[in-house]
Amino acid sequence: QVTLVESGGGVVQAGGSLRLSCVVSGITITDNLMGWFRQAPGKGREMVASVPSSGPPKYGDRVRGRFTSSRDNAKNTVYLQMNSLKSEDTAVYYCHIPAKNDGSSAYWGQGTQVTVSS
């Protein structure tokens, strides 16, 4: 069974920082593209970061320059460092493994709440 468990969310003041972690079990992340998404109340799910198995991550327009994602394959864990947080960053943040062309499944974590107070 594949599980993705996010942690590190919480309440922070505008301008502050948080670091989210996503621990994966049941599958190795080494050869997998990893992703971070978020969903604010009443809005659709938005891509935050895409972390390839090799090469630099890509970021959504609204977080580029403030958020940084990294991976530790030895720990089967992906991180999202969020700096200069804004009230509009308030959302539930999800870790994601997309499906591959070989027919493998996509996986999502349960999400972690990030609330930025102004």
Short description:
This protein has about 120 residues and is mostly beta strands.
Keywords:
118 residues, mainly beta, 7-stranded mixed sheet, 4-stranded antiparallel sheet, 11 strands
Structure, explained:
The chain has 118 residues and is an all-beta fold. It is 0% helix and 50% strand. It is built from no helices and eleven strands. Strands 2, 4, 5, 6, 9, 10 and 11 form a seven-stranded mixed beta sheet that branches. It has a four-stranded antiparallel beta sheet with strand order 1-3-8-7, with no helix packed on it. Strand 4 and strand 5 form a beta hairpin. The radius of gyration is 14 Å and the shape is globular. The model has no long low-confidence stretch (mean pLDDT 96).
Taking the sheet with the most strands, its summary is: 7 strands, mixed
Distance between the termini: 40 Å
Order of helices and strands: EEEEEEEEEEE
Mean pLDDT: 96
The outline comes out as globular
Fold blueprint:
Elements: E1 3-7, E2 10-13, E3 18-25, E4 34-39, E5 45-51, E6 58-59, E7 67-72, E8 77-82, E9 91-97, E10 107-108, E11 112-117
